[in-house]
Amino acid sequence: MKVILVSAGDAITARLVEEAGFDGIWVSGFEVSARMGLPDNGSLTMTEMLNVCRPIVEAVRIPVYVDVDTGYGNFSRTVREFERAGAKGVCVQDDMPHLKQNSLWGGKTPLMDMKEFAQKIAIKRKIMIIARTEALIRGYFLEEALKRARYYAKHGADVVLVHTRDQIGKEACNVAKNLKSGIKLAIVPTKFPHFTNKRLFDIGYSMVIWANQTERCKIKAIRQAEGRGLRVFCGTWDERHT
């Protein structure tokens, strides 16, 4: 398995991702939170994510994977609901639910007990479960991240995501180097975009997730339009209020 997922927070973006030839859609908790004006700290509900997911699934033929943060409480029910919505898989992380925060900031916080998290994901389901450990993000170093990755793979995870914000990509290389080839690995290279997809596949990753790039593109495009064409196209405030 070698797949590239690209983020989409709505159906039209998902169709553009599909049109560009990528393998699947990533519905990002960070992007959906930002669109709703909310911090990425577990503020979203399962219903809100389902409402984003459903029209995307209906709009494209490629698989859709959804970031469900820490699982919205009853993870078994969460999985059933996203199965019904047509998602191909969900990604759940081992942050403590009440301490969940965006992975690009914050210091060391407690993680969920490894065995408890493994019990959480060891459920009957029809869709893929991507088990994400925040061990490197929360300052627990490589040994803890590898231990958790191996344990989650052994106890039901279809794919393991060891998240990292190391800007040179050294942690990502070390994870792939130290985990046996039988474990399918996902990576989110937001902080080290100089790594190509080919390079990530070559070092041992099976799934590359560009988790918020389309939203970044939109923000940049709108800001550029505001500086040039948007005022011409839409008129200035004074013109519209005279």
Architecture blueprint of SSEs:
Elements: E1 3-7, H1 11-19, E2 24-27, H2 29-35, H3 46-59, E3 64-67, H4 75-85, E4 89-93, H5 114-121, E5 128-133, H6 141-154, E6 159-162, H7 170-178, E7 185-187, H8 197-202, E8 207-210, H9 213-227, H10 230-234, H11 237-240
Parallel strand pairs: 1-2, 1-8, 2-3, 3-4, 4-5, 5-6, 6-7, 7-8
Helix pairs in contact: 1-3, 3-4
Characterization of the model:
The protein is of the alpha/beta class and 242 residues long. It has one domain (3-211): Phosphoenolpyruvate-binding domains (TIM Barrel). It contains eleven helices and eight strands. It has an eight-stranded parallel β-barrel, surrounded by seven helices.
What labels describe this entry?
11 helices; 14% strand; TIM Barrel; 242 residues; alpha/beta
User: Could you give the count of β-strands?
Assistant: 8
SS-based class:
alpha/beta
Distance between the termini: 59 Å
**DSSP summary: helix tally:** 11
Outline: globular
* Secondary structure: helix percent: 40-55%
State the assembly state of the protein chains: single chain
CATH topology: TIM Barrel
Total separate domains: 1
Largest sheet: 8 strands, parallel, barrel
CATH superfamily: Phosphoenolpyruvate-binding domains
Structure described in brief:
With 242 residues, the protein is α/β, with parallel strands linked by helices. It is built from 11 helices and 8 strands. The chain has one domain: TIM Barrel (Alpha-Beta Barrel).
